[in-house]
Design goal:
It contains 3 helices and no strands. The protein is rod-shaped, with a radius of gyration of 33 Å. About 90% of the residues lie in helices and about 0% in strands. The protein is mainly α. This is DUF3618 domain-containing protein.
Length: about 90
């Protein structure tokens, strides 16, 4: 024999097993998260909602910084609606 009792090898194997179990646990958790379609859809919806809110806030900031173009667009849209209503009344 080489003078060792093999306890170092056994302990090294045990540590390898502990590490393999930890890695496997992480892999299983990752797969379970990917398989949870409801949770992924909720997360996606939440992300979309956050982006939309950010865009709305950004648009609000743009209107506050320079309201004239926005007011002109709204006035133009209102005028177009009035013209369309008048055309419909003439036809109807």
């Amino acid at each position: 024999m080489n003078g060792t009792n093999g306890s170092g090898d056994v302990e090294m194997l045990r540590e390898d097993i502990r590490q393999a179990r930890a890695d496997l646990g992480e892999t299983v958790q990752a797969l379970a998260a990917k398989a949870d379609v409801k949770a992924r859809m909720r997360a996606s919806a939440e992300h979309t909602k956050e982006r939309a809110l950010a865009q709305v806030h950004g648009a609000g900031d743009a209107v506050r910084r320079n309201p004239v173009p926005w007011a002109a667009m709204l006035a133009g849209a209102g005028a177009a609606i009035i013209v369309l209503m008048m055309i419909q009344r003439r036809r109807g």
